[in-house]
Design a protein that fits this description.
The chain is mainly α. The chain has 12 helices and no strands. The longest helix has 24 residues.
Length: 242
Protein backbone atom coordinates (compact mmCIF):
# COMPACT_ATOMS: atom_id res chain seq x y z
CA UNK A 1 0.00 0.00 0.00
CA UNK A 2 1.67 3.26 -1.12
CA UNK A 3 0.64 5.18 1.99
CA UNK A 4 3.35 7.83 1.65
CA UNK A 5 2.53 8.51 -2.01
CA UNK A 6 -1.19 8.91 -1.28
CA UNK A 7 -0.49 11.28 1.61
CA UNK A 8 1.96 13.26 -0.55
CA UNK A 9 -0.60 13.70 -3.34
CA UNK A 10 -3.31 14.72 -0.88
CA UNK A 11 -0.96 17.27 0.69
CA UNK A 12 -0.55 18.97 -2.69
CA UNK A 13 -4.30 18.96 -3.32
CA UNK A 14 -5.20 20.50 0.03
CA UNK A 15 -2.19 22.83 0.07
CA UNK A 16 -3.13 24.17 -3.37
CA UNK A 17 -6.75 24.69 -2.34
CA UNK A 18 -5.75 26.46 0.88
CA UNK A 19 -3.23 28.72 -0.88
CA UNK A 20 -5.71 29.60 -3.62
CA UNK A 21 -8.34 30.50 -1.04
CA UNK A 22 -6.22 32.34 1.54
CA UNK A 23 -3.19 33.42 -0.49
CA UNK A 24 -4.15 37.08 -0.57
CA UNK A 25 -3.71 37.22 3.21
CA UNK A 26 0.03 36.39 3.12
CA UNK A 27 2.73 39.02 2.58
CA UNK A 28 5.55 38.57 0.05
CA UNK A 29 8.11 38.67 2.85
CA UNK A 30 6.36 35.77 4.60
CA UNK A 31 6.43 33.68 1.40
CA UNK A 32 10.17 34.32 0.93
CA UNK A 33 11.14 33.62 4.53
CA UNK A 34 9.10 30.42 4.85
CA UNK A 35 10.73 29.05 1.70
CA UNK A 36 14.10 29.32 3.46
CA UNK A 37 12.72 27.11 6.24
CA UNK A 38 11.60 24.56 3.64
CA UNK A 39 15.20 24.41 2.41
CA UNK A 40 16.63 23.85 5.87
CA UNK A 41 14.10 21.05 6.49
CA UNK A 42 15.09 19.35 3.21
CA UNK A 43 18.75 19.46 4.25
CA UNK A 44 17.92 18.07 7.70
CA UNK A 45 16.06 15.15 6.04
CA UNK A 46 19.09 14.31 3.90
CA UNK A 47 21.84 14.35 6.54
CA UNK A 48 20.70 11.24 8.53
CA UNK A 49 20.48 9.21 5.31
CA UNK A 50 24.01 10.20 4.29
CA UNK A 51 25.43 9.25 7.68
CA UNK A 52 24.17 5.66 7.29
CA UNK A 53 25.97 4.87 4.02
CA UNK A 54 27.71 1.48 3.94
CA UNK A 55 30.25 2.12 1.16
CA UNK A 56 31.23 5.78 0.90
CA UNK A 57 33.48 5.37 -2.20
CA UNK A 58 30.66 3.58 -4.06
CA UNK A 59 28.15 6.32 -3.22
CA UNK A 60 30.52 9.12 -4.22
CA UNK A 61 31.36 7.33 -7.48
CA UNK A 62 27.65 6.84 -8.24
CA UNK A 63 26.91 10.54 -7.64
CA UNK A 64 29.78 11.68 -9.86
CA UNK A 65 29.04 9.23 -12.68
CA UNK A 66 25.26 9.68 -12.41
CA UNK A 67 25.44 13.47 -12.45
CA UNK A 68 27.90 13.37 -15.36
CA UNK A 69 25.47 11.14 -17.24
CA UNK A 70 22.59 13.47 -16.44
CA UNK A 71 24.53 16.50 -17.64
CA UNK A 72 25.66 14.68 -20.80
CA UNK A 73 22.11 13.56 -21.63
CA UNK A 74 20.73 16.98 -20.63
CA UNK A 75 18.37 15.27 -18.20
CA UNK A 76 17.21 18.58 -16.74
CA UNK A 77 16.14 19.86 -20.15
CA UNK A 78 14.20 16.65 -20.85
CA UNK A 79 12.35 16.96 -17.56
CA UNK A 80 11.53 20.59 -18.31
CA UNK A 81 10.28 19.61 -21.78
CA UNK A 82 8.00 16.96 -20.25
CA UNK A 83 6.74 19.49 -17.72
CA UNK A 84 6.03 21.95 -20.52
CA UNK A 85 3.83 19.35 -22.23
CA UNK A 86 1.95 18.69 -18.97
CA UNK A 87 1.57 22.42 -18.44
CA UNK A 88 -0.51 22.95 -21.58
CA UNK A 89 -3.74 21.25 -20.41
CA UNK A 90 -3.23 22.52 -16.84
CA UNK A 91 -2.87 26.11 -18.03
CA UNK A 92 -6.49 25.96 -19.21
CA UNK A 93 -7.70 25.32 -15.66
CA UNK A 94 -9.97 28.15 -14.44
CA UNK A 95 -8.01 30.75 -12.48
CA UNK A 96 -8.89 33.57 -10.11
CA UNK A 97 -7.61 37.06 -10.84
CA UNK A 98 -3.81 36.76 -11.24
CA UNK A 99 -1.29 39.40 -10.21
CA UNK A 100 1.47 38.06 -12.50
CA UNK A 101 1.88 38.04 -16.27
CA UNK A 102 0.86 35.05 -18.40
CA UNK A 103 4.53 34.27 -19.17
CA UNK A 104 5.39 34.27 -15.47
CA UNK A 105 2.35 32.12 -14.79
CA UNK A 106 3.39 29.48 -17.33
CA UNK A 107 7.03 29.56 -16.18
CA UNK A 108 5.98 29.10 -12.54
CA UNK A 109 3.66 26.26 -13.50
CA UNK A 110 6.47 24.38 -15.26
CA UNK A 111 8.73 24.95 -12.24
CA UNK A 112 6.31 23.43 -9.76
CA UNK A 113 5.51 20.48 -12.05
CA UNK A 114 9.22 19.66 -12.00
CA UNK A 115 9.41 20.32 -8.25
CA UNK A 116 6.54 18.00 -7.36
CA UNK A 117 6.86 15.31 -10.05
CA UNK A 118 10.63 14.99 -10.57
CA UNK A 119 12.27 16.01 -7.30
CA UNK A 120 15.10 13.85 -6.02
CA UNK A 121 13.36 13.57 -2.64
CA UNK A 122 10.12 12.35 -4.21
CA UNK A 123 11.84 9.80 -6.43
CA UNK A 124 14.00 8.62 -3.53
CA UNK A 125 11.00 8.40 -1.21
CA UNK A 126 8.86 6.48 -3.70
CA UNK A 127 11.59 3.95 -4.42
CA UNK A 128 12.36 3.58 -0.71
CA UNK A 129 8.71 2.98 0.13
CA UNK A 130 8.46 0.39 -2.64
CA UNK A 131 11.60 -1.44 -1.52
CA UNK A 132 11.31 -1.27 2.27
CA UNK A 133 7.80 -0.07 3.09
CA UNK A 134 9.29 2.96 4.84
CA UNK A 135 6.99 5.89 4.08
CA UNK A 136 8.49 8.35 6.60
CA UNK A 137 10.47 10.19 3.90
CA UNK A 138 7.35 10.83 1.82
CA UNK A 139 5.32 11.83 4.88
CA UNK A 140 8.00 14.35 5.86
CA UNK A 141 8.06 15.54 2.24
CA UNK A 142 4.26 15.84 2.36
CA UNK A 143 4.50 18.39 5.17
CA UNK A 144 6.88 20.49 3.07
CA UNK A 145 4.80 20.01 -0.09
CA UNK A 146 1.59 21.08 1.66
CA UNK A 147 3.04 24.47 2.52
CA UNK A 148 5.00 24.74 -0.74
CA UNK A 149 1.81 24.10 -2.73
CA UNK A 150 -0.01 26.69 -0.62
CA UNK A 151 2.70 29.30 -1.24
CA UNK A 152 2.72 28.70 -5.01
CA UNK A 153 -1.09 28.70 -5.12
CA UNK A 154 -1.02 32.17 -3.58
CA UNK A 155 0.44 33.38 -6.89
CA UNK A 156 -1.06 31.12 -9.57
CA UNK A 157 -4.25 29.76 -8.00
CA UNK A 158 -5.93 26.40 -7.60
CA UNK A 159 -4.22 24.80 -10.61
CA UNK A 160 -1.43 23.77 -8.20
CA UNK A 161 -3.77 21.10 -6.78
CA UNK A 162 -4.15 19.48 -10.22
CA UNK A 163 -0.42 18.66 -10.26
CA UNK A 164 -1.18 15.94 -7.71
CA UNK A 165 -2.52 13.78 -10.57
CA UNK A 166 0.68 13.43 -12.68
CA UNK A 167 2.71 13.36 -9.46
CA UNK A 168 0.79 10.33 -8.19
CA UNK A 169 1.19 8.55 -11.54
CA UNK A 170 4.97 9.11 -11.58
CA UNK A 171 5.54 8.14 -7.94
CA UNK A 172 3.24 5.11 -8.04
CA UNK A 173 5.06 3.82 -11.14
CA UNK A 174 8.36 4.13 -9.26
CA UNK A 175 6.78 2.37 -6.27
CA UNK A 176 5.81 -0.62 -8.43
CA UNK A 177 9.27 -0.70 -10.04
CA UNK A 178 10.96 -0.68 -6.64
CA UNK A 179 8.79 -3.55 -5.43
CA UNK A 180 10.23 -5.69 -8.23
CA UNK A 181 13.81 -4.55 -7.54
CA UNK A 182 13.85 -5.08 -3.76
CA UNK A 183 14.35 -8.92 -3.80
CA UNK A 184 17.60 -8.36 -5.73
CA UNK A 185 19.11 -6.00 -3.16
CA UNK A 186 21.26 -6.40 -0.05
CA UNK A 187 21.16 -4.34 3.20
CA UNK A 188 24.32 -2.43 2.24
CA UNK A 189 22.86 -1.60 -1.19
CA UNK A 190 19.76 -0.15 0.49
CA UNK A 191 21.86 1.97 2.85
CA UNK A 192 23.95 3.30 -0.04
CA UNK A 193 20.79 4.03 -2.01
CA UNK A 194 19.39 6.02 0.92
CA UNK A 195 22.69 7.89 1.24
CA UNK A 196 22.59 8.84 -2.44
CA UNK A 197 19.06 10.16 -1.96
CA UNK A 198 20.30 12.09 1.06
CA UNK A 199 22.82 13.93 -1.12
CA UNK A 200 19.98 14.89 -3.48
CA UNK A 201 17.89 16.19 -0.57
CA UNK A 202 20.89 18.18 0.70
CA UNK A 203 21.43 19.68 -2.77
CA UNK A 204 17.71 20.49 -3.00
CA UNK A 205 17.92 22.33 0.30
CA UNK A 206 20.82 24.46 -0.93
CA UNK A 207 18.77 25.33 -4.03
CA UNK A 208 15.73 26.31 -1.97
CA UNK A 209 17.73 28.69 0.22
CA UNK A 210 19.49 29.95 -2.94
CA UNK A 211 23.02 29.35 -1.67
CA UNK A 212 23.98 27.31 -4.72
CA UNK A 213 21.84 26.08 -7.61
CA UNK A 214 23.00 22.47 -7.71
CA UNK A 215 21.91 20.48 -10.83
CA UNK A 216 19.53 18.30 -8.81
CA UNK A 217 17.57 17.09 -11.84
CA UNK A 218 20.80 15.99 -13.52
CA UNK A 219 21.76 14.15 -10.32
CA UNK A 220 18.74 11.82 -10.57
CA UNK A 221 20.55 9.17 -12.72
CA UNK A 222 22.83 8.59 -9.73
CA UNK A 223 19.83 6.96 -8.04
CA UNK A 224 19.83 4.34 -10.80
CA UNK A 225 23.56 3.68 -10.60
CA UNK A 226 24.20 3.60 -6.87
CA UNK A 227 22.90 0.11 -6.09
CA UNK A 228 24.75 -1.68 -8.95
CA UNK A 229 27.93 0.21 -8.06
CA UNK A 230 27.44 -0.63 -4.37
CA UNK A 231 27.07 -4.32 -5.25
CA UNK A 232 30.17 -4.27 -7.47
CA UNK A 233 32.16 -2.48 -4.79
CA UNK A 234 31.18 -4.97 -2.07
CA UNK A 235 31.56 -8.05 -4.28
CA UNK A 236 34.68 -7.26 -6.28
CA UNK A 237 36.59 -4.29 -4.87
CA UNK A 238 36.41 -4.81 -1.10
CA UNK A 239 37.76 -8.42 -1.26
CA UNK A 240 40.87 -7.12 -3.05
CA UNK A 241 41.81 -5.21 0.10
CA UNK A 242 40.72 -7.97 2.48
Amino acid sequence: MPVGIIINSLSIIFGGLLGGFLGHLLSEDFKVQITLIFGVCSMAMGIPSISQMANMPAVILAIILGTSLGLFLKFNQKINAAATLMQKPMAKFPQPELTISNDDYLSTLVTIIVLFCASGTGIFGSLTEGMTGDHTILIAKSILDFFTAAIFACNIGYVVSVIAIPQFIVFFSLFLLATAIFPLTTPSMILDFKACGGFLMLATGFRMIKVKMFPTADMIPAMLLVMPISWLWTTWIVPLFG
